[in-house]
Amino acid sequence: MSPEVIDIWSYLAREPLLWLTVTLLAYLAGDGISRATGRAPLANPVLIAMLLLAGLLEATGTPYADYFEGAQFVHFMLGPATVALAVPLHAALPRLRGLVIPMLGALAAGSVTAILSALLIARALGVEGATLLSLAPKSATAPVAIGIAESLGGLPTLTAALVILTGIIGAVTVTPLMNALRIRDWRARGFAAGVAAHGIGTARAFQVDPTAGAFSGLGMGLNAMLTALLAPWLVAAFT
Amino acid sequence: MIVNIAILLVCQLIGEATTRALDAPVPGPVLGLALLLGTLALRPAFVPRVAPVANGLLAHLSLLFVPAGVGVVAHLDRLGSEGPALLVALLGSTVATLAVTAGVFVGLRRLIGAKP
């Protein structure tokens, strides 16, 4: 590279503008591919955008901390977006009538399954100690899961990664799985996505159907609370 | 639009402050969600004041997970030698949770005879 190009690069690399812009462009590319494939489960926009960006960081030798200087503005919006879930939930309230028992039953069964099945599979494969404990809250939304991992004696940064991976796995598998199980009720499909795969599952649900999105947001919020209550208790019984 | 954003941020701020003050096991934004939901239920006239930005944000909820997702890929090697076992556990557990949650939901709905 010529000295001018290096000058411009070292200027841009320090400014939040570059990585903020690139994050939006990577998402637009991911969303474009997702639309072009008719929202195919594997063409998940989060997955595509994060692979593109991780490749770009690797190619340019950019540390994640520098990238996050720019990307933090996008990351910050997760909080307001969680509050915003009140709007579709409010619209879905009339459709909640008569569903309180199915919802609470599904929540309890799903929350226990999420914690216990992860612990059982991982332990059978030889995972133990703090790594195993980090896995317990993986279906809860990230801030709750990290708090739970800390109180259990897990590794909060590992939990953060496991939570994100869980979200992506849930978002990619939910549609083919529900089709295979012949579950066509958008409320059940959405609720399951939120309980199993928190916000990333909810983002997927909103792509597919607004009712599924609202129920997914509800499942995510309820499972965050229930996991915080259940995880210490189930982990103590398990270990 | 600014009113929309301000309402969302005020709810989040009250949520964050309350969960910190009470040391509650709920994240601030989730409490903010409950607060906004309560407000909308009591005062439906509020809906048009938040709906445009709220729906706009939620239409691109995927975007907001990208920075955290990049962090996971950038640090994937930190999963270490237990990485494959952890991925198998995540895959098995997530699929089981999806199936159990949706199955119990549909089963109980049929049992109590709620309309599909």
Automatic annotation (TrEMBL), chain A:
Membrane topology: Multi-pass membrane protein
Gene Ontology annotations for the cellular component aspect, listed alphabetically: membrane
Record's subcellular location: Membrane
Keyword line: Membrane, Transmembrane, Transmembrane helix
TM regions (residue ranges): 12-30, 42-61, 73-93, 100-125, 158-178, 214-238
Main location: membrane
Pfam families registered for this protein in UniProt: LrgB
UniProt protein name: LrgB family protein
TrEMBL record, chain B:
Location within or outside the cell: Cell membrane
Pfam families reported in the protein's UniProt record: LrgA (PF03788)
TM spans (from-to): 27-46, 53-74, 86-108
Keywords: Cell membrane, Membrane, Transmembrane, Transmembrane helix
Membrane topology type: Multi-pass membrane protein
GO cellular component: plasma membrane
Stored InterPro entries: LrgA/CidA
Major site of localization recorded for this protein: membrane
Coiled coil: none
Protein name as it appears in the record: CidA/LrgA family protein
Protein species of origin: Rhodosalinus halophilus
